[in-house]
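Quick one, tokens below:
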């Protein structure tokens, strides 16, 4: 039975104090009313990780870094290595987010290094893929997403691939208020699961958690999560309010 996962992505929003207070509010809400069979993850800025780890019950809520360096260590001023992330108590790393690809030039070569270092340090990658609006309008979204996967996580062994989480995020739906329809989301996630089955076998595909990310909110989460191949969400803006995030967690 594959895991249901609801992961927040706070991006560059809260300051440290705000982030810790938000984490405490989510922790309290989940403790009182959270779905017991859903894995909850808070994706925080580097500055927040230790504070958030201390603020939550880590048996119930996991903490994710939003990125890590492509090098293990060395003279890389301003970078945070996977080993450094691991030392904070975080368990997950969000990798390949469209904003990292677009704004910071992250290529498949860079992401290959990041995925490998994340796994080497016992962290779980939440690996993002997804297409821009022009690709969707051209009808080539399947080929685009397939290439993103083939150039990165499909280079892993079946054993290592089984340790990651995939998040499909149509770029045209991130922070726009436009959500992929339930049918569009299910179609793409089923396609991704089929690719995984072709590469690693049906058993690995069946156990891989694949999330939807793209303006998922309390109003549409239930409809999205009702689809057989959607195993949860990578949640942006709606994860910044504890009550909204809890509503999405409880959409299962």
């Amino acid at each position: 039975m594959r895991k249901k996962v609801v992961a927040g992505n706070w991006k560059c929003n809260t300051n440290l104090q705000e982030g810790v207070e938000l984490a405490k509010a989510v922790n309290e809400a989940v403790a009182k009313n959270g779905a017991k069979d859903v894995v909850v993850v808070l994706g925080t800025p580097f500055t927040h990780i230790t504070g958030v780890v201390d603020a939550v019950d880590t048996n119930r809520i996991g903490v994710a870094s939003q990125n890590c360096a492509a090098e293990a260590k060395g003279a890389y001023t301003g970078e945070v290595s996977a080993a450094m992330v691991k030392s904070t108590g975080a368990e997950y790393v969000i990798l390949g987010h469209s904003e990292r690809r677009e704004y910071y030039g992250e290529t498949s070569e860079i992401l290959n290094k990041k995925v490998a270092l994340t796994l080497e340090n016992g962290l779980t990658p939440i690996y993002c893929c997804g297409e821009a609006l022009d690709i969707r309008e051209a009808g080539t979204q399947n080929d685009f997403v397939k290439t993103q996967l083939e150039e990165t996580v499909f280079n892993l062994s079946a054993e290592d691939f089984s340790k990651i989480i995939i998040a499909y995020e149509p770029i045209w739906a991130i922070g726009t208020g436009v959500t992929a329809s339930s049918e569009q989301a299910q179609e793409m996630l089923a396609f991704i699961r089929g690719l995984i089955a072709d590469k690693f076998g049906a058993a690995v595909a069946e156990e891989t958690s694949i999330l939807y990310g793209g303006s998922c909110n309390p109003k549409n989460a239930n409809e999205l999560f009702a689809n057989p191949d959607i195993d949860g969400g990578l949640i942006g803006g709606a994860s910044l309010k504890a009550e909204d995030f809890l509503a999405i967690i409880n959409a299962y």
